[in-house]
Amino acid sequence: MAGRTVQFPSNGGTTDAYLSTPAAGKGPGVIVIQEWWGLVGHIKNVADRFAAEGFAALAPDLFHGKTADEPDEAGKLFMALNVGQAEKDLRGAIDALKPHSSTQKIGVVGFCMGGQLALFAATLNASVGACVNFYGVHPHVKPDYSKLAGPVLGLFAEKDQFVTPQVARDVDAAIKKAGKSSEVHIYPNVDHAFFNDERAGIYDKAAADDAWRRTLAFFRQHLT
After folding, report:
1. Which residue among 71, 119, 158, 222 is the one 20 to 30 A from 180 at the CA level?
2. Angle between helical axes of 83-97 and 113-124 (0-180°, round to 10)
């Protein structure tokens, strides 16, 4: 791993995060938000990939040290998420990333649970200039799209049983109805978590590569 573990203040305490910065020291800032597995190696690797592309990336540990290897365990952590605490953690993460960012506006990107939390963070922080939502889902997280401060890119999977194509289209429509900018891509013949290269049998390289290309271009366009 090219990055390092850091701590930032949050809600009177501290929260751990993984910080990866580019060779130049600073770059456009991006918050990377975990799946229901926790802050695992895959998410840290995504942060490192951003750094290699010139971004400064921070991945906060929203489960505060807990990770899961099995879906049942991950599901319990997912449902036990304290949304109020997560809101404070994300706000603290954005503040912690700003000194490393070369842009005033920060990007947020999340996967599965993190995708919904990315949308949530983007509605709560005027500093967020762009949001990328990879197949986001969480029943307790209800973003108010009218408060988005920047555009949203949604990346979804045709075979997803958690976030179906219809759900993806509904999110897109709701964002646009709120008067905000939304762009959605639904990848054919792939499933939920197609971007996670540690999920054998689910990872789809062609779709993941295209989604990564779109994500980088979106942030480069909108973070200033």
Report:
1. 158
2. 70
What CATH number has the domain bearing residue 91?
Answer: 3.40.50.1820
Q: Among residues 180, 158, 205, 27, which one has the least CA distance to residue 105?
A: 27
Whether pLDDT at 170 is above 90: yes
What DSSP designation does 122 have?
H
Nearest to 48 by CA among 110, 101, 3: 3
Span 22-42, pLDDT tens digits? 999 999 999 999 999 999 999
- Report which of 131, 121, 107 is spatially closest to residue 55, judged by C-alpha positions: 107
pLDDT at 82 over 80: yes
| Through-space distance between the first and last CA atoms of the chain, rounded to whole angstroms | 27
Nearest to 69, CA basis, from 46, 45, 44, 35 = 35
Write out the residue range of the structural domain in which residue 129 sits: 4-222
Report pLDDT for 1: 59
Q: Specify the pTM.
A: 0.97
What is each CA distance from 204 to 42, 79, 175, 197, 214, in whole angstroms?
Answer: 15, 27, 28, 8, 15
3-state secondary structure of 157: strand
Phi then psi for residue 126, to 5 deg, are: -65, -15
Confidence of residue 12 (pLDDT cuts 50, 70, 90): confident
Q: Give me the number of domains the chain comprises.
A: 1
| Measured CA distances, 192 to 51, 57, 104, 138, 201 (Å) | 25, 24, 32, 14, 11
8-state DSSP, 129: E
